[in-house]
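Please fill in the sequence for the structure shown.

STRUCTURE ENCODING:
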């Protein structure tokens, strides 16, 4: 057996975790770290959040924690076997080992067990099915560690069975492939076959759940390969993607933005030919208003809002921003520059601060312009002159310009 001693593992032992471990030990209940956190620790990554698994039932945990005066928070997870305890300003999510009794492709009815192997069996991928004892011992029933070392993504047991338990696992397969696999195209043929045969099951999964996974896929590695695969395996149509997505544009843009940390929507929009594609995506996935607006903005401006000729390549973007009356236009322009792969211009645009127009109506009144209508016209003329100067003219220059006008 392998024992993990990594510094990331040692760092988990906060006062809270030590207290939790003591309580379980006293009662002879087994407690282990489960799933994604084990995968992260074995990869040398500090896990974001840690799930624990135990042989104790929810009732036994409640009794034990209550007797020890430990605060329990939200009971929502209880019927799935999860108890959340709060110790030393830290939450601990602890779930009883379980077996899925009935699954409908979306939810499972569970019954509790004390068999670690049975619990591992109902998890999705081998790299997510491992447990780690608090002494560092690895419990690995399906060669997850070996797969992680070899950067292989495989379902636990038969792919088709795992997928039919929850069709969202198709997208989880893609997500972890983009996170762990070394190169595109390294799939087991029978896994791809199982995905293709079950793709239709994604039609019954809620848009919100799909969007969470899809966003992570769009920000991972091999995104071009994975999205092409979604088309080859007939998945695209069930998750709101256009039937005739623009794959050349997607290939180009997904390469452009590799190191520019784009928003998921920026990557995805390159598949779209027009605004209807954004609307259809929204109907299926219920994306946020901000995401929808970004998609519509990119589809509308990606062709004609491009860098200027000559010495001032940023000018078209700056002018657009200055003329815009909408909030957060600058963040949309940043995303457009990423989409276009303009890394240098993006840096310059992010450093550019929007100058404020130096002349006010008050200045014009001092110069004897009195009627509101004339003031409005004069201000607009001066704004145009100021824009032509690249926003460099100051108040004096503009006012002397007004005398000429």
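FILLED IN BY: designer on duty
SEQUENCE:
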């Amino acid at each position: 057996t392998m024992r993990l001693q990594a510094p990331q593992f040692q760092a988990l032992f906060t006062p809270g975790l030590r207290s939790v471990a003591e309580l379980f030990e006293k009662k002879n209940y087994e407690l282990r770290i489960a799933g994604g956190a084990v995968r992260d620790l074995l990869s040398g990554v500090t896990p974001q959040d840690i799930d624990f698994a135990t042989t104790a039932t929810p009732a036994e945990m409640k009794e034990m924690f209550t007797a020890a005066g430990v605060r329990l928070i939200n009971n929502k997870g209880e019927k799935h076997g999860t108890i959340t305890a709060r110790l030393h300003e830290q939450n601990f999510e602890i779930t009883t080992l379980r077996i899925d009794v009935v699954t409908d492709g979306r939810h499972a009815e569970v019954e509790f067990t004390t068999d670690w192997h049975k619990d591992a069996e109902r998890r999705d991928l081998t790299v997510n099915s491992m447990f780690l004892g608090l002494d560092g011992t690895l419990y690995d029933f399906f060669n997850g560690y070996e797969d992680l070392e070899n950067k292989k993504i495989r379902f636990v047991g038969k792919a088709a069975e795992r997928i039919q338990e929850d069709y969202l696992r198709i997208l989880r397969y893609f997500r972890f492939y983009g996170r762990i696999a070394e190169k595109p195209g390294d799939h087991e043929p029978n896994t791809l076959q199982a995905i293709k045969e079950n793709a239709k099951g994604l039609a019954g999964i809620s848009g919100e759940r799909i969007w969470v996974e899809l966003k992570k896929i769009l920000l991972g590695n091999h995104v071009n390969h994975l999205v092409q695969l979604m088309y080859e395996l007939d998945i695209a149509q069930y998750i709101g993607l256009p039937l005739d997505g623009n794959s050349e544009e997607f290939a180009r843009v997904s390469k452009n933005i590799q190191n520019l940390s784009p928003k998921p929507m920026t990557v995805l929009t390159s598949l779209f030919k027009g605004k209807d594609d954004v609307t259809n995506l929204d109907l299926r996935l219920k994306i946020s208003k901000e995401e929808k607006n970004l998609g519509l903005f990119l589809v509308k401006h990606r062709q004609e809002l491009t860098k200027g000729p000559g010495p001032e390549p940023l000018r078209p973007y700056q002018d657009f921003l200055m003329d815009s009356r909408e909030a957060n236009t600058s963040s949309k322009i940043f995303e457009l520059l990423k989409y276009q792969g303009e890394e240098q211009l993006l840096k310059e645009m992010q450093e550019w601060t929007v100058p404020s127009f130096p002349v006010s109506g008050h200045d014009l009144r001092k110069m004897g312009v009195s009627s509101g209508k004339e003031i409005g016209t004069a201000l607009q003329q001066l704004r145009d002159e100021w824009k032509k100067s690249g926003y460099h003219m100051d108040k004096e220059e503009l006012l002397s310009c007004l005398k000429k006008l």
